[in-house]
Design goal:
CATH topology: TIM Barrel
Strand content: 5-15%
Bound molecules: 3-methyl-2-oxobutanoic acid
Largest sheet: 8 strands, parallel, barrel
Shape: elongated
CATH superfamily: Phosphoenolpyruvate-binding domains
Number of strands: 8
Distance between the termini: 59 Å
Number of helices: 11
Length: about 270
């Protein structure tokens, strides 16, 4: 099984791969492809739950989907993404919510969208045996504060703040830091400066690993950010399959003889 220690060993030696997944069948596909980490992202809000943002996602939704991903996988490291306000309000609630992911959903770690308020919290969780992945740069749970899903760390002051926070979280015991939508040169310097792996999304080629949202990789999204890549046309395949079903039923081709059988013992029923 991939462990947080394995990721530390991979950093700088071989790229770490991470994808989101939100259910058992896709998690099994991701694991079979040899990806190192599955993030049960709160991006499920947009990707599968039909919300406009990640804010409505609940602890129970992440718990249930993390459990499904864990049941379908053996080797991959499973990280549960803690939803908005499930951490950082009351310490005891944070510990309980994060703990549920390990106790009830068999996650190996949790991810927190990070800031100054999560440094001590990270230390406390790690002290209790809950591995923490930090997340800096664009933190979508702050969309209303940021005014949109914009690139972060675009001037020297904010880039330096991000570096300080990355160091602080690494010192607090975070086992990896996700850097989302930050300039490549900033991500590159943070990667150089901290001694835990960085995993980038929209952060250029120099981070220790890369993460994408599975819907983008599959080609399932109506819109894909410029930094993501569609590696397939799963949406097109699904549309073809559903269309094929409808046409076959309407034309009488389905069900055919091989899909049906007669019970010979039954003659006539009243
Ligand atoms: O929720 C998510 O999918 C994420 C990734 C984009 C890192 O946080």
């Amino acid at each position: 099984m991939t462990t947080v220690q394995d990721l530390a060993e991979m950093a700088g030696e071989e790229p770490i791969t991470m994808l989101t997944a939100y259910d058992a069948p896709t998690a099994a596909i991701v694991e079979a492809a040899g990806v190192d980490v599955i993030l049960v992202g709160d991006s499920m809000g947009n990707a599968v739950l039909g919300h406009d943002s990640t804010l409505p996602v609940t602890v129970e939704e992440v718990r249930s989907r993390t459990a499904a991903v864990s049941r379908a996988t053996d080797d991959v490291l499973v990280v549960a993404d803690m939803p908005f306000l499930s951490y950082g309000v009351e310490e005891s609630d944070t510990i309980e919510n994060c703990g549920r992911m390990l106790k009830e959903a068999d996650a190996n770690a949790v991810k927190l969208e990070s800031g100054p308020h999560t440094v001590e919290l990270t230390e406390r969780l790690v002290e209790l045996g809950i591995p923490v992945m930090a997340h800096l740069g664009l933190t979508p749970q702050r969309v209303h504060q940021l005014g949109g899903y914009f690139r972060q760390g675009t001037d020297e002051e904010s880039a330096a703040e991000m570096l300080d926070l990355a160091r602080a979280h690494a010192d607090a015991g975070a086992f990896a830091v996700v850097l989302e939508h930050v300039p490549s040169n900033v991500a590159s310097q943070i990667t150089e400066e901290i001694d835990v792996p960085t995993i980038g999304i929209g952060a250029g080629p120099d981070t220790d690993g890369q993460v994408l949202v599975l819907n983008d990789v599959f080609g399932m999204s109506d819109w894909t950010p410029y930094f993501a890549e569609q590696f397939g046309d799963v949406k097109g395949e699904m549309e073809n399959a559903v269309e094929g079903f409808r046409e076959a039923v309407e034309s009488g081709d389905f069900p055919a003889d091989e899909h049906s059988y007669d019970e010979e013992e039954i003659d006539e029923i009243y």
